[in-house]
């Protein structure tokens, strides 16, 4: 075995039946060069593209192909096979395989392993551009991401079928890099961190709602940054426009009350980062049917206060996360307001930012924040939201590491 970043890591490689299966031969070599042990599993369809003989020759291990193989079952059952790996890698993940994964099929060895595994799963999709763009595939992608499956690619380019667009499997070295990141024992390895993100939508009636301008991009960046330091991340998001983070568990909600329920049922966690722009009020009794214009006059909306999720979690006497980080969106006296907000809510840190329209921060790609803790305030220079996220994640890692 060669020494490298993946030394001692076992990867269960599920090869799907697509033309990109040929790239798996190189992928296996590259993974092994870095020290990984690769156990290949081939679907029936993949054998039309590469032979089990070449796969096993490169892997230096026999290929698993059959669900009902009595000899193998006696040696190592398929459940165990799915559990001994550090990562299950599906490459190429065809449209069909993605559909089966998203819907919990288990009618061959590959899909059964995917259902039985308790190890992280990563997939490298590969298919014709139309198939990739098809609403069914996009729906399956959302489901799989929500289940915590990490996705690498697909890339855009010329395809074997003669068309052009997204659908080409990521190159072996890109997949290797994603595997290395996923398996790196970062400083947050073994830590469970909750992140809330995006706006909430508070219904007025079945077609109208109250919302805010949060794009969710800072929350997504924070979840990605925590994940890349090795944390297990639970991402509770409102209907945000930003792309969802990868390799994390995603819970989609609409209202503040739903966000509260999702947060409470995700506890216990080591840390909670409350980046969501939660609506402070909801319409007290949203109408079940569409409110119509009438001659009687304008509708009057009565408001009720939403639960303050950050305050509730910060003030828990039992099961409070070790570190609670809130956000404050302010337009005036940023530090002063955020400092008193930290005390009032009872959280450990507040990441305060000035969201006056002239700053362009709300919905923009940059952020200028002040980190407020018990020790005072620290203004960070204006930087990209990814950089803010990386710095915050590092700070969280240092703090949890010292506990
Ligand atoms: N928050 C929450 N639940 C709410 C409202 C806010 O968890 N119902 C969290 C947000 O995720 C954020 C922080 O609390 O971390 C923001 O607090 P909030 O009091 O809403 O601050 P602002 O939006 O800045 O509003 P205000 O200045 O009116 O207090």
TrEMBL record:
Q: What is the lineage of its organism?
A: Bacteria, Pseudomonadati, Pseudomonadota, Alphaproteobacteria, Rhodobacterales
Native source species? Pelagimonas varians
Extract the PANTHER family matched here.
HOMO-OLIGOMERIC FLAVIN CONTAINING CYS DECARBOXYLASE FAMILY, PHOSPHOPANTOTHENOYLCYSTEINE DECARBOXYLASE
**Enzyme Commission code:** 4.1.1.36, 6.3.2.5
Q: Which GO terms describe its molecular function?
A: FMN binding; metal ion binding; phosphopantothenate--cysteine ligase activity; phosphopantothenoylcysteine decarboxylase activity
Which keywords does the record carry? Decarboxylase, Flavoprotein, FMN, Ligase, Lyase, Magnesium, Metal-binding, Multifunctional enzyme
A Pfam family (short name) is Flavoprotein
The record's listing under SUPFAM superfamilies reads: CoaB-like, Homo-oligomeric flavin-containing Cys decarboxylases, HFCD
Identify the pathway.
Answer: Cofactor biosynthesis; coenzyme A biosynthesis; CoA from (R)-pantothenate: step 3/5; Cofactor biosynthesis; coenzyme A biosynthesis; CoA from (R)-pantothenate: step 2/5
* The name this protein goes by in its record: Coenzyme A biosynthesis bifunctional protein CoaBC
Q: Where is this region: Phosphopantothenate--cysteine ligase?
A: 193-403
Name the InterPro entries for this protein.
CoaB-like_sf (IPR035929), CoaBC (IPR005252), DNA/pantothenate-metab_flavo_C (IPR007085), Flavin_trans-like (IPR036551), Flavoprotein (IPR003382)
| Active site, per annotation | 161
Task: List residues of the DNA/pantothenate metabolism flavoprotein C-terminal domain.
Answer: 188-398
């Amino acid at each position: 075995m060669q020494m490298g970043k993946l030394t001692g890591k076992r990867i269960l490689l599920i090869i799907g039946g697509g033309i990109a299966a040929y790239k798996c031969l190189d992928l296996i070599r590259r993974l092994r060069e870095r020290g990984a042990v690769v156990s290949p599993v081939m679907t029936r369809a993949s054998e039309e593209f590469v032979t089990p003989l070449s796969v096993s020759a490169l892997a230096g291990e026999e290929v698993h192909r059959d669900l009902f193989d009595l000899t193998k079952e006696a040696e190592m059952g398929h459940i165990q096979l799915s559990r001994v790996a550090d990562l299950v890698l599906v490459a190429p993940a065809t449209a069909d395989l993605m559909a089966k994964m998203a819907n919990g099929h288990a009618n061959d060895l590959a899909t059964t392993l995917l259902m039985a595994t308790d190890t992280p799963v990563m997939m490298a999709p590969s298919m014709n551009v139309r198939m990739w763009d098809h609403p069914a595939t996009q729906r399956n992608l959302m489901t799989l991401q929500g289940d915590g499956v990490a996705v690498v690619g697909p890339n855009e380019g010329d395809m074997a079928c003669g068309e052009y667009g997204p659908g080409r499997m990521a190159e072996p070295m890109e997949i290797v890099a994603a595997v290395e990141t996923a398996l790196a024992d970062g400083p947050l390895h073994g830590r469970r961190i909750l992140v809330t993100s995006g706006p909430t939508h508070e219904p007025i009636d079945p077609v109208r709602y109250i919302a805010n301008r949060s794009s969710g991009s800072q929350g997504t960046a924070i979840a990605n940054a925590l994940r890349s330091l090795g944390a297990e991340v639970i991402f509770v998001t409102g209907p945000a426009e930003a792309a969802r983070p990868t390799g994390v568990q995603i819970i989609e909600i609409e209202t503040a009350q739903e966000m509260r329920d999702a947060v409470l049922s995700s506890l216990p966690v080591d840390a909670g980062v409350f980046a969501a722009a939660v609506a402070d009020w909801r319409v007290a009794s949203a109408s079940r049917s569409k409110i119509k214009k009438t001659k009687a006059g304008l509708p009057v909306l009565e408001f009720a206060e939403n639960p303050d999720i950050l305050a509730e979690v910060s003030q828990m006497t039992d099961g409070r996360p070790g570190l609670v980080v809130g956000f404050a969106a302010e337009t005036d006296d940023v530090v002063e307001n955020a400092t008193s907000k930290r005390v009032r809510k009872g959280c450990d840190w507040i990441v305060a930012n000035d969201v006056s329209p002239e700053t362009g921060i709300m919905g923009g790609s940059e952020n200028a924040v002040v980190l407020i803790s018990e020790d005072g305030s620290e203004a960070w220079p204006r930087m990209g939201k990814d950089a803010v996220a990386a710095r915050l994640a590092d700070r969280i890692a240092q703090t949890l590491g010292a506990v």
